[in-house]
Every structure is written in C-alpha cells, then in structure tokens.
Design a protein that fits this description.
Layout: H1 8-43, H2 45-109, H3 120-129, H4 135-156, H5 167-182, H6 185-188, H7 202-216, H8 237-245
Helix pairs in contact: 1-2, 2-3, 2-5, 2-7, 3-4, 4-5, 5-7
Length: 248
C-alpha cells in the first residue's frame, strides 16, 4: 500500500456499507410505498447522512490519490531528465580533467614554464551533476573534486628548485586524478548502469600512468632499472602506487 492511500479493507467496508444501505432503502420503498418510505427516511436520516458522507469521503480520497500518483510520476520523470542531462555533460568534463592531469605531469617532468589551465568550468559541471547522478558515481565524483583541490594547490605552489624531490609524489597526484576521471567514463557514456565506488586498483593506476606518459611521448619509465635507483632518493611512482594500491 502506498503512503496516504486508503487501505483495501477500508474501501471494501465503505462500499459494502453503501451497498447495504442502498439495498435497505430500496426494501423500505418496496414494502411501505412512497408515503411511509419518506417517514422511515426521516427517522433514519442521521444514518443516511453518514453514508452519504462516507461515499463523498471515499470519492475524494480516490481523486487525491490519483493526483498524488500523477505528481509522483511527473517528479520521477523530471529527476530522470535532470540525471540524463547531467550525465550527458560529464564525458566532456572528464576528458578535460584527463587533459589537465596529463598537462600537470608534463609541467612537472619537462620544465614547462606555464601552469596547465585549471578545469574550473568542468569541476563546476561535476558539482552540479552530484545532485542527480547515482550514489556510487556521486562518491567518485566527490573524490575527483576533493582530490583536484589538493592536487591543484600543490601544483601551483610547486617550486622546482626547492621541491624537486616531490616530483614523483606530485606526478602521482595527477595520475590519481586521471584514473578517477577515467573510472567514470563508462557511466557518463551510459555504458555501465551499475558503477561502483570501490578503491582504485593498482592495475587502474598503472594504466592511467602509462596513458599519461604515452600521451606525452615521455621516455621516463614508471619502473626505473635498479642501476638508476640511485637517481631517485624519494619513492618512485611505482613504489607510491604499490604502497597505496598494491592490496587492491
């Protein structure tokens, strides 16, 4: 039974009472004729009025329930359209975020002078989508927005001379942002209705890192040879990914 809907047993009871009352009135008319019928009606007018009131109440409740059902359907239809509109805008936003993450790695590794353009409009698109998309995908979207704020703040304050030992960590920040964004592509493109907010696996981070380096045409390896290990006083990207995602 839906909320605010009259129970079936109550409808049956009211209809049965109305039918029984109508039958009784008809029996009085047949037995006593019109003159005595109106006399008996006068004597039973309170009961008759109550029956009429019940009939009116039943009719009103049925009309109100129908209106509520129509309103629920309109509301569901509106939410569905807003959800589809939000998802339709997500692929472009996610692509822009992936480009920004790739440009961030390029800035860190190749002595770029200018910072990459921040995807502010795309982040606004994701923030607006949060209200309408499914819960698990909303959690991932929230992670993207939160992580971007951290990653972008670190990148803008990066000083190559003072913070060179943090390059791998900052590259990891950008690659994690890339991986989070790519994890939503199937959902945004309506290929996957049942996404999930599970932690990213090491394979997903490795794939994201390789895609970033491939896009940049970089010769820098994610997995340096042992002979090159002395050039990395801080953890390498591979070690950072292993430490944070190796158990997935």
């Amino acid at each position: 039974m839906k909320k605010n809907e009259l129970p079936v047993w109550a409808e049956v009871l009211i209809i049965g009472g109305l039918f029984g009352g109508s039958t009784g009135l008809w029996a009085l008319l047949v037995r006593y004729g019109w003159s005595d019928f109106w006399k008996n009606v006068h004597e039973w007018q309170t009961l008759i009025a109550a029956m009429i009131a019940l009939a009116a109440a039943l009719s009103t409740i049925r009309v109100m329930n129908g209106q509520r059902a129509d309103e629920r359907e309109r509301h569901k239809s509106l939410l569905l359209r807003k959800k589809l509109a939000a998802r339709a805008q997500m692929p472009d936003a996610l692509s822009a975020i992936c480009r920004y993450a790739t440009d961030s790695v390029d800035y860190l590794l190749h002595d770029q002078v200018d910072l990459p353009d921040s995807p502010q409009d795309e982040m606004t698109t994701l923030k607006l989508a949060l209200e309408y998309i499914d819960n698990s995908e909303a959690e991932i979207t929230y992670q993207i927005i939160s992580h971007y704020q951290i990653q972008n703040s670190r990148l803008e304050s990066f000083d190559r001379e003072l913070n060179e030992y943090l390059i791998n960590q900052y590259c990891y920040d950008a690659i994690l942002l890339y991986a989070l964004a790519t994890s939503l592509f199937d959902y945004a493109r309506n290929k996957n209705q049942d996404g999930g907010a599970a932690l990213l696996t090491r394979e997903e981070l490795d794939r994201a890192a390789n895609n970033v380096f491939f896009s940049l045409g970089s010769e820098r390896s994610l997995y340096p040879e042992e002979a090159e290990r002395s050039d990395y006083p801080e953890p390498t990207l591979e070690e950072i990914i292993q430490r944070r995602h190796g158990r997935n």
